[in-house]
Design a protein that fits this description.
Elements lengths: L14 H18 L4 E6 L3 H14 L4 E5 L8 H13 L3 E3 L3 H6 L2 H10 L11 E5 L9 E6 L5 E5 L2 H29 L1 E3 L5 H5 L21 H10 L4 H4 L14 H6 L3 H13 L3 H8 L3 H17 L1 H4 L13
Parallel strand pairs: 1-2, 1-7, 2-3
Antiparallel strand pairs: 4-5, 5-6
Helix pairs in contact: 1-2, 2-8, 5-6, 11-13, 12-13
Length: about 325
């Protein structure tokens, strides 16, 4: 039985039973891939922490490398949390700063160009983030928020061209993290373990060729609240097990709610669970203490976003039949 099979709610599961199932699945996947261990890029968040802990149980700690990949925008806190995690799990770890590679590829210069297209007096070093409009049944609108010297914040709507420039630049961060992960996987004859949870995977909250690329995705069937429950079951450090979800992309703190989902993660879990199980709007609204309007908007957003991000899940298009002869 999968973690999402029951219709009683996303939190209605046995953490120990699920842990053992996931551990066995990781062990089987790595064996079938002909690898000897796993590489996990850890962000200091609960998703990568749980994946690292599951891999350590499945493969023995010394066969799991935790990569810490800080860059200029996100700072050093994630790397320090990754170091604490490695100490708790008894795994090897390595810090590989990716800032120099991103600078060489023009990532930071492109970010500055995109911000300056909206705020013409912008100066490099001003903190900023991207924020979506609240779900209201209309197309999503993105605004850029900058923090001026002295702490005053200002938001302006972002034109499509500047939005795409900023997104393409920040997506480079995920792709470089994946390049480093696979470089170490080749060196260690290991598999790369991905860290998306079910909400992220289903809703396309990942970068194609970046954090969407891995050899095994252990928690892609787990709702976010289930991942938090597993983190406590696995006794991860509290700074990781209780850490609020964040994008780790922009220099201003940013929640996944304001950047992508539009709802708090606990509500997103319930909305996605309800939509996937065909739960009536009235029933889910009563269960989740949400308005009928919010549930209906949430259901519509889930379907729209799943359709819009289908490209991210798509395999390469082959123009000829290349299947092996039978």
């Amino acid at each position: 039985m999968t973690a999402i099979a029951e219709k009683r709610g996303p939190l209605d599961f046995d953490a120990e039973v699920v842990t053992e199932r996931l551990v066995a699945g990781i062990r089987r996947a790595v064996r079938d891939l002909g690898r000897r261990g796993a590489v996990v890029a850890v962000s200091g968040g609960v998703d990568s922490g749980v994946v690292a802990a599951l891999c350590a149980r499945a493969l023995e700690p010394h066969r799991v490398l935790l990569l810490r990949l800080p860059e200029a925008t996100s700072g050093n806190r994630s790397s320090l949390l990754g170091l604490e995690l490695a100490a708790r799990l008894g795994t090897p770890t390595r810090e590989e700063p990716i800032g120099p590679a991103l600078a060489a590829l023009g990532c930071y210069a492109q970010q500055d160009e995109a911000v300056r297209a909206v705020f013409h007096d912008y100066q490099p070093g001003w903190p900023f983030k991207l924020v979506r409009s609240r779900p209201n049944g209309s197309p999503t609108v993105f605004s850029l928020v900058v923090e001026r010297p002295g702490g005053r914040r200002e938001a302006r709507r972002m034109p499509a061209a500047a939005y795409r420039l900023l997104l393409s630049a920040t997506n480079t961060k995920q792709r470089i993290r994946t390049v480093v992960s696979y470089t170490w996987a080749d060196r260690l004859h290991a598999a790369v373990a991905g860290t998306p949870n079910l909400v992220e995977y289903d809703q396309g909250f990942f970068v194609k060729g970046g954090d969407g690329l891995s050899d095994v995705k252990p928690i892609a069937g787990m709702y976010k609240q289930q991942v938090y429950a597993l983190a406590r079951h696995l006794r991860l450090p509290e700074a990781i097990a209780g850490r609020a979800p964040t994008t780790e992309t922009f220099s201003l703190h940013q929640s996944q709610e304001e950047f992508y989902f539009g709802f708090p993660m606990a509500q997103m879990d319930l909305i996605l669970w309800g939509e996937r199980h065909g739960i009536a709007v009235n029933e889910l609204a009563a269960r989740g203490r949400m308005s009928r309007e919010d549930v209906a908007l949430g259901y519509a957003e889930v379907v729209r976003r799943r359709t819009a991000t289908a490209y991210l899940h798509a395999a390469p298009v082959l123009l000829d039949d290349v299947a092996p002869p039978t």
